[in-house]
Amino acid sequence: MESAELIAILQEVRDRVRARNPQTAVPGEPGIPLPDLMPLVHARDSALGKVAAIGTVNPRPGGLVNTLVQGWKKFLARLLDWHVREQVGFNRQIVSAVDAAIEALNETNRAIGQLGARLAEAEKSAAKLPEELADIRSHWADWRVDWERKLAQNEVQFLRSVADLQGAQQHRSNLMDANYRDLVRAQHQDFTAALERQMIEVQKRLWADMERLRLEYERLIFSELRTIRQRAEVRGKPPELPAGSPAASPESAALQFDYGRFAERFRGPEEYVKAGQQFYLPYFAGLQNVLDIGCGRGEFLEMMRDAGVPARGIDLSEESVATCRHKGLAAETADLFRYLADLPEASLDGIFCSQVVEHLSPERLPEMVRLCATRLTRNGVIAIETPNPESLAIFATHFYLDPTHQRPIPPPLLAFYLEEFGMGGIEVKRLQPAVESMPSLAALPAEFRDAFFGALDYAILGKRL
Q1: Contact 216/463 with Cβ under 8 angstroms?
Q2: Paired residues of 202 in beta bridges
Q3: Is 456 left (phi over 0), alpha (psi -120 to 50) or beta?
Q4: What pTM was computed for the model?
Q5: 3-class secondary structure per residue, the chain
Q6: Nearest-CA neighbor of 387 among 454, 339, 462, 456?
Q7: Which of 6, 129, 218, 373 is most buried (most C-beta within 10 Å)?
Q8: In terms of C-beta density within 10 A (0-12 exposed, 13-18 middle, 19 or more buried), how is residue 386 classed?
Q9: Are 92 and 51 a contacting pair, CB within 8 Å?
């Protein structure tokens, strides 16, 4: 075995012994001084020797006397063995306790030795600490500048993030506010529109009810007036007109000129007349049996045909009737009094009469209104158009231009005739303002112009009660 291996074995044995019995600190190594337990070990060994000697006889020189003495001592030892047995056990227990104490103290020494080793390592580390602190102090300035720079960057980044979040939150708040305002505005518009529709519907129903009540009221008045007339007729009938009177001669005298050419020049072309008669379309739409008295060239009948309303016309002029038939319209030559008299009562839904009543004598106008009223069904519509005598311009230009005109009829008089023969819901509509055909009237004050130079024509409308 080489010396190096032997030295390593001895070193290992020494380390184990020191670890097992750390009596003192390891020489040359920093540590905590440990108590020496060798005196306690020697005392234990002496006690063990005394315990082992109990019950034995001391050796003496050989011989008879010694043999006798030795025998006697052995006899006494056996004799006293029962007396000292407990003492021997006690002594052995004391020695065991000492062994245990030594072992505990050895463990304590080992623990203290380990603590000392750790303290030594701590002292070594503490010896290196000043160098590290010096290195930290030397680099602290650089570290602080870098740390402050990073801190500033982080703070700027944080503030930017907060600003971005705040901007996003503000934008979202603005969007929510705008959406809310739009929603409220839309709901308000829907509410106002619905409210307006409901109000319009209520107004329509109210006006319809008022119109119905007015018609019922006018029917009641008409029926009372008819009763009064019937009572008055009991006293006697009015005398009949003579056969040669104007009322009995509805036919106009024969004209010595072309009346169709006259109407074309002074009344206007068909397109002009059709445009003016569009006003009557809502009143006759949906009816099933309409009569046009004095149909002329058939402008109204064409409008009714285009609207899908069954209509026919009558006229005294055979040329006008031929023109209507050439257009495919239902028309015939007839006197209005005889034609209406031959019709059954309540057989017409509507009657239209344009520019005719001013050609009748004043005595026959009530008869014509009576015949029209009796031939209309209940709620049947009548529309009469004639020159407006309220406008002075009509006398200066249009009325006396036609030699067949008899007398202008004021709107209140024609309304009275209609009411008298059972018509209700009377409406008077002024048509064709004079200022449109006579621009010089625009120089007059508006109130004066409207009062004395208003509409050239008027239309009166009513319903059968």
Answers
A1: no
A2: none
A3: alpha
A4: 0.49
A5: CCHHHHHHHHHHHHHHHHHHCCCCCCCCCCCCCCCCCHHHHHHHHHHHHHHHHCCCCCCCCCCHHHHHHHHHHHHHHHHCHHHHHHHHHHHHHHHHHHHHHHHHHHHHHHHHHHHHHHHHHHHHHHHHHHHHHHHHHHHHHHHHHHHHHHHHHHHHHHHHHHHHHHHHHHHHHHHHHHHHHHHHHHHHHHHHHHHHHHHHHHHHHHHHHHHHHHHHHHHHHHHHHHHHHHHHHCCCCCCCCCCCCHHHCCCCCCCCCCHHHHHHHHCCCHHHHHHHHHHHHHHHCCCCCEEEECCCCCHHHHHHHHHCCCEEEEECCHHHHHHHHHCCCCEEECCHHHHHHHCCCCCEEEEEEECCHHHCCCCCHHHHHHHHHHHEEEEEEEEEEEECCCCCHHHHCCHHHCCCCCCCCCHHHHHHHHHHCCEEEEEEEEEEEHHHHCHHHHHCCHHHHHHHCCEEEEEEEEEEC
A6: 456
A7: 373
A8: buried
A9: yes
> pLDDT tens across 209-234, in order?
888 888 787 777 766 776 676 666 55
**CA distances, 294 to each of 173, 189, 228, 335 (Å):** 74, 51, 34, 9
Cα distance between residue 225 and residue 421, in whole Å: 10
Which two structure tokens, joined as six digits, stand for 255?
A: 């004209």
For residue 318, give every residue at least 6 positions away whose Cβ sits within 8 Å of its Cβ, in sequence order, or none: 333
At 165, give phi and psi (nearest 5°): -65, -40
Q: Measuring CA to CA, how many Å separate 264 from each of 85, 210, 271, 304, 462?
A: 172, 43, 11, 21, 29
Q: What does the pLDDT look like over 253-289, one tens digit per residue?
A: 455 555 555 565 556 677 878 888 899 999 999 898 9
Spatial separation of the C-alpha atoms in residues 435 and 448, rounded to whole Å: 12
Residue-wise pLDDT for 425-465, tens only, equals: 899 998 888 787 777 777 888 787 777 777 888 999 999 98
Q: How many residues does the chain have?
A: 465
pLDDT at 74: 73
Q: In terms of Cα–Cα distance, which of 368, 381, 355 is closest to 295?
A: 355
> How many of the other CB atoms lie within 10 Å of CB of 356?
20
Dihedral pair phi/psi, residue 376, rounded to 5°: -90, 145
Residue 116 makes CB contacts below 8 A (sequence gap 6+) with: 25, 30, 31, 32
Q: List beta partners, residue 387.
A: 457
The type of residue at 108 is T
Written as one letter, the residue type at 426 is I
Tokens matching residue 463: 């319903």
Take residue 190 and report the two structure tokens written for it: 């829907």
